[in-house]
Each structure stands twice: as C-alpha cells, then as structure tokens.
Specification:
Strand content: 5-15%
Order of helices and strands: HHHHHHHEEEHEHEHEHEHEHEHHHHHEE
Largest sheet: 9 strands, mixed
Family: Belongs to the DprA/Smf family.
GO biological process, one term: DNA-mediated transformation
CATH architecture of the largest domain: 3-Layer(aba) Sandwich
CATH class of the largest domain: Alpha Beta
Pfam families: DNA_processg_A, DprA_N, WHD_DprA
Structural class: alpha/beta
Protein name: Rossmann fold nucleotide-binding protein Smf possibly involved in DNA uptake
Length: 382
C-alpha cells in the first residue's frame, strides 16, 4: 500500500459503504479486518477486482460476493439509523470504545441505542445466573448502585436474573449502565425487559454488533459475552452455577488480561459453586464494592460529568424498615440472617409457632424485607 492510500481521510467511507461490506456474505469480523488492512479503506474494497481481492488472502465466498452484481440490502439498517438516539459507529469513529479495538475480532460496526458518551466511561462488567437466589439478586443490585455512585458504569447483558438486577441497581446510581445484547437492536430480548431497556437508553446505552433484523440465537450469546468483558476494566460474577454462561464472560476477561472478581456464597447454594470455582482459579474474592474499587485503583474517581440525583429519587434504605419492626419480627429476621429457611426450619430456630411465623412472613413480604423462593424465605435487607 502506498503512502497516499494510507493517509486518505477516514470520512471518505460512508456508513452505507461500511454496512455494505459488513453485510456481504462471507465477510465476518476477521475478514473485514483483513480487507481493511490490505486496501486501507472500505471503498477500495468494494471497487476491487477479483484479482486484487485474491491478493488479500480471503475466502472464495467473500471474493465472489464482493465481485457479484448484487449487493446486500442495507435499507433496514439505514432506516433504523434515522431514529433519534440511534447510532452506528465504525471502527474509525472517535466514539468507538478504545478497549473494544484491542480485540482481534473487534466489531467493524457497533449499533448503539442511547448516549454514545457512556461508551467512553470506565466500566465494570457484572454477570451471573439467570435464576439467582433472592439474596443474589439483591447483592447484585446493591453492588451496582454503589459502584455506579463511585463513577463506574455497569455493563451487563440484559438477561434475566443477575444481569437485570445489575442494570436496575446501576440506574439508581450516577454513572448509568450499558446493556450488550446478542441480536439486532430492532428488538429487545427478553421481551419482559422492554421497559428496562428504555430506562437504560435514557441513562446509558444498549449496544450490539448484530445487524438490524438478527434474532437472538444460542450461538450468539457467547460472542456477546466477549464484548461485555472487553469493554470493562474487570468482570464481577455475583452468582453462577458450574456451567453458567457467565463463566464464559469470566474466561474471556482472563484471556483479555482484565481483573475477575467473584462473590462467595453458601456451600449449600448451587448458584455459588461457579464463583467458588473462579476463586480457586485465581479470581479475587470480594465482600464489598469497596474491594473492587481499591483493586482497580479508582476509589477516588471523580464523577463531575454525571447528573446529580435529587433526594426524592433516592430509594429508601430497606434496613430502615427492619429497624422499625416490632421485636418479634426482628427476632425472626435474625433467624434469616445468612441463609434462606423454610417455615419448618424457622419454627425450630425461632420458637414461634408455624402460624405466627406465617403471619409475620406475610407482613415482611409486603414490606419487601423478605422474599419467598421455592418455599424458602430470604432476608433481602442484609
């Protein structure tokens, strides 16, 4: 490649050109990078001859598609882009996340719904089980709020369970949250998170490397996980079983030389075994959000760019409910201090009758102090 070609301005390649190349059959992330490195800019790839493309050492499928008279349909992507707060970033855009560029297969295009400025903020990935315990969900939410207030944008995958709780907690803090999804941004999956996704759009961003129209498929989620870890300074696993998909995110983080943190749990909780496995493999055991901030050396991070929330928007501390309860309710809660328990177990540990316990638990559930899961009650104010 001559010097003149290397020094051509980046903006000569339109977003339509980038979309055309990216959606060409046979052109995945790796092939896109190979072609861009060889030709210097996208337009040169699209106008290259069969002989010139062959010299770039890419597949016959990509060469035949690029030299064909038919071009991919990019109309859906361009139509989506016309909506306010919808963006498509190329690798050459200043707003494209710097950390993401370090991936060998960095997405050539990044679809963003929301505020692109959040992509430049320091981030921490939070992942875990789709079916967490009530305590695990509460822990994720509390950690996310604390870290967000410290200036860390929380990045997760918008899935059920720990992902959702992490996003919700981060939205209560200052630094917002980023959701990385495994499908086109014309849909939201799971559908139950439509409202959550809208809140994230208003206080962060929902992003994807997938073109418009791509539906969620099993094989796309692990690919999504590598982006979650790559965007972040570290990855925190809250609850995970041995074969949890969140362990894939942790593995990517290790391969990318970023920190992995894990919150330990009860030896009786199968959702804690993945975290314990990570700790045995070298992940850092954390008990408080402060442990993470100190490890990342960002405990004094200034947050002047984030809007301050009014006192009215600050949620009431659930521990205040606990302190306002009568002595019998407080005594019962002490029996739920560390692990979930059934009514029968509480009868033995509290000396209340089953009827008394059932009545008190009903009140505590209505006060959002305890949660029942599979017949066992958890104190979520700890």
């Amino acid at each position: 490649m001559d010097a003149e070609t290397k020094n051509r301005p980046v903006n000569q390649d339109s977003i339509a050109s980038w979309l055309t190349l990216r959606l060409t059959p046979g052109v995945g992330n790796t092939t896109f990078h190979t072609l861009l490195n060889h030709f210097g800019h996208v337009e040169a790839v699209l106008t290259a001859s069969h002989k010139q493309l062959s010299a770039a050492n890419v597949s016959a499928e990509a060469i035949n598609a690029l030299t064909s008279q038919t071009t991919p349909d990019i109309s859906a992507d361009l139509a989506w882009l016309e909506t306010e707060d919808h963006h498509i970033l190329t690798l050459n855009d200043a707003a494209y996340p710097t950390r993401l560029k370090q991936l060998n297969d960095a997405p050539p295009l990044l679809y963003v719904r929301g505020d692109i400025d959040y992509l430049q903020q320091p981030q921490l990935a939070m992942v875990g089980s789709r079916n967490p315990t009530a305590a695990g969900r509460n822990t994720a939410k509390n950690f996310a709020t604390h870290l967000s207030d410290a200036g860390i944008t929380i990045t997760s995958g918008l899935a059920d369970g720990i992902d959702g709780a992490s996003h919700e907690g981060a939205l209560l803090g200052l630094a917002g949250t980023i959701a990385v999804v495994a499908h086109g941004l014309d849909i939201i999956y799971p559908a139950k998170h439509q409202q959550l996704a809208q809140k994230i759009t208003e206080n962060g961003a929902v992003i994807s490397e997938m073109p418009i129209g791509i539906q969620p498929r099993r094989g796309l989620f692990p690919r999504r996980n590598r982006l979650i870890s790559a965007l972040s300074l570290g990855t925190l696993v809250v609850e995970a079983a041995y074969k949890s998909g969140s362990l894939i995110t942790a593995r990517y983080a290790m391969e990318q030389n970023s920190e992995v943190f894990a919150i330990p749990g009860s030896i009786h909780n199968p959702m804690a075994r993945g975290c314990h496995q990570l700790i045995r493999q070298g992940a850092k055991l954390v008990e408080t959000a402060k442990d993470i901030l100190e490890e990342l050396n960002i405990s004094q991070l200034a947050t002047p760019s984030y809007p301050q929330k009014s006192e009215q928007s600050t949620p009431e501390n659930p521990k205040d409910h606990q302190q306002a309860l009568d002595p019998d309710h407080q005594k019962l809660l002490k029996c739920l201090a560390y692990e979930p328990a059934s009514i029968d177990e509480l009868v033995l540990s509290s000396q209340f009758s089953a009827a008394e316990i059932a009545s008190m638990l009903l009140i505590l559930e209505l006060e959002d102090v305890v949660v029942c899961q599979n017949g066992r009650y958890t104190n979520v104010t700890i």
